[in-house]
Amino acid sequence: MAASQADERLLAQLRDRVGQRVTGWRPGARVRGVSPLTGGTSSLTFLVDLAGVAAGETPVVLKVAPPGLAPVRNRDVLRQARLQKAVQGAGRPLAPDVLFADPGEPPEVPPFMAMNLVPGECVEPVLCDAAMRPAPGQVRARFFDAVQVLAQLHAIDPAAAGLGGEPAVGLADEVDRWTRAFATLPKEMGGDYERAAKALRSSMPAPLPTAVNHGDFRLGNTLCEGDQINAVIDWEIWSVGDPRIDLGWFLVNSDADTYSRPSTFVDAVPPRSDLLSCYGDVSEVAWFMALACFKSAATWALIVKHNRRRSTPQPQLEAMAPVLPGLLERSRVLMG
């Protein structure tokens, strides 16, 4: 459910609930209005206009779990809030600040969290339309800044950040998760996923010490101004596990060849070797890139499947269907 689908009853409820919570953050603050933001599938996003606060403190961003559904897994906005608070002391800001939250009474009254509105544009250079892409020099600079942000995130000790009780996600767990996703697809969409899964399991490297993983780390999940990243957003599927899971995903999504999309900015994307040098010394990255291609094939296939069920399917999503077999083949090639 996208925020644009929110009905007036939900908006009125949020105005009242935010009004009750916001005074704990800023005494005397009051809600002037709540308006939906587009985008988002696992939670709803709103802008809240406030009175009685400093000019730079309004509006705030509200993330709300979908009403009527249990706020678990990627819908658990309070778990996201806990993570965003945990990474704030890592040097430069890695995520928007969590200002206040409300547990609600799920599933009917959904939880929410409020964040500061971080300035910046959210652009995926490899996949976006040419008219939306930043200048080539900015693309290059943002990729280098992103890999430094990723290294900073992975340098956080989960236990020291208060995340020691979080169960670690093993490499076999990752392979199994996306294998189960493939099993839900029509046969013609799954391709030879079982062969790719078998190859991943048989060549699995020894894991590194656990780190905090974003789960979908790429430029399209950052807010950028000029050459720099102001914040990483969309922490719905964060976990604790081998940091190369994030790194492989970032590298695969930095490569225009991954999705067979023509891009005038291919030369602006730094070579993989340069990004790895900036990140730090790691081994067996190719296996994690293969896992990322396997994961991407599964997630895009699920998106295409659900898109086909819509009354009006979106052509840009259907256009990814022919790419899926190539992602599985790329996974096998990366494993040799």
Please give a quick description of this structure.
With 336 residues, this protein is α+β, with helices and mostly antiparallel strands. The protein has helices at 8-25, 77-86, 136-154, 171-183, 187-190, 193-202, 244-253, 272-279, 285-308, 315-318, 324-334; strands at 30-36, 44-51, 60-64, 98-102, 112-116, 168-169, 211-213, 222-225, 228-232, 239-241. The longest helix has 24 residues, at 285-308.
| Major sheet size, sense and barrel closure | 5 strands, antiparallel
Tally of helical segments: 11
Give the % helix. Answer: 25-40%
- String of helices and strands: HEEEHEEHEHHHEEEEHHHHH
What oligomeric arrangement do these chains adopt?
single chain
Q: What form results from the Cα inertia axes?
A: globular
| Proportion in β-strands | 5-15%
Which sequence of strands runs across the widest sheet? 1-2-3-5-4
Distance between the termini: 41 Å
Q: Care to count the β-strands?
A: 10
Secondary-structure-derived class: alpha+beta
Low-confidence stretches: 1-5
* Rg, alpha carbons: 20 Å
Mean pLDDT: 91
Write the topology of this structure.
Layout lengths: L7 H18 L4 E7 L7 E8 L8 E5 L12 H10 L11 E5 L9 E5 L19 H19 L13 E2 L1 H13 L3 H4 L2 H10 L8 E3 L8 E4 L2 E5 L6 E3 L2 H10 L18 H8 L5 H24 L6 H4 L5 H11 L2
Parallel strand pairs: 6-10
Antiparallel strand pairs: 1-2, 2-3, 3-5, 4-5, 7-10, 8-9
What does this structure look like?
- By secondary structure, the chain is α+β, with helices and mostly antiparallel strands.
- Helices cover 39% and strands 14% of the residues.
- The protein has 11 helices and 10 strands.
- It has helices at 8-25, 77-86, 136-154, 171-183, 187-190, 193-202, 244-253, 272-279, 285-308, 315-318, 324-334, and strands at 30-36, 44-51, 60-64, 98-102, 112-116, 168-169, 211-213, 222-225, 228-232, 239-241.
- It has a 5-stranded antiparallel sheet, sandwiched between helices. Strands 6-10-7 form a 3-stranded mixed sheet.
- A hairpin with a 7-residue loop joins strand 1 and strand 2.
- Helix 3 runs parallel beside helix 8 (272-279).
- It is globular, with a radius of gyration of 20 Å.
- Residues 1-5 have low confidence and may be disordered.
